[in-house]
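Changelog entry: the Large ribosomal subunit protein uL16m record was regenerated in this release. Current contents:
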Amino acid sequence: MTDTRLWVIYYGKPCIITILVLNTPQWTSVCGFKHFPAPPNFDHVTIPERTKLTVMERVPQFPPGLKPPKMQKRLRYMRGKEMVHNFLLHQQYGIMALGGGRLKYQHFEVMRLGIGRKMDTQRMFAIWRVDAPWQPVTKRGQGQRLGGGKGAIDHYVTPIKAGRIIVELGGKCEFDEVKDFLQKIAEKLPFKAMAVSHELLQEMRRKEIEDEKNNLNFYTMKYVIQNNMGGCQNWLSPFDFKWFCKHV
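Regenerated structure tokens:
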């Protein structure tokens, strides 16, 4: 860096102006060498005969002569954490629920049509990880008087817990190819969900264990509830004693 001083007349008075000159080097690329990593190997992946998602039944089939049974709300089917179907069978990609909720027949069709349009059936496949709608939901007609027993069955739903894998997608493809349309479909579901891969699931669980291990706050929710600090047990439900306010 060099400086140059000039004498100038400013409003009839002589003054000195210092100009700084930066000697910035410039490079012009003439010939470059690019190194791209080798693509992943998918020789171990086997594509099934049916690659698209099957059509789910709107109403479950009952034996002839059996009246379709009615059911209570049973909200416990949606509360808490999924302990069984919380991993990817093919260890590739899928959609995971982040909260509890219910899936209707319309939601199954949104996922089936959305994935079927975007996926390449020559090298990709998709499978369901949830059952068809089986829990009946009753509804009474508008303007009816009270009484008269429980209403008629209006539709069927599938209860979902947090951490449940809803649909799984695999094949000879990378996560960047399928992440966008899987995330768009996950945003259309009636509860929070996200597109995940096998590596992302492992990283999330590792980070959860690491955060719990490195936590510097001694007064965790588990410690507060188990020691009844402030008499909090008088206002807690049995689910809070089991999940410590993690899944509400």
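Residues 70 and 136 are 6 Å apart (CA to CA).
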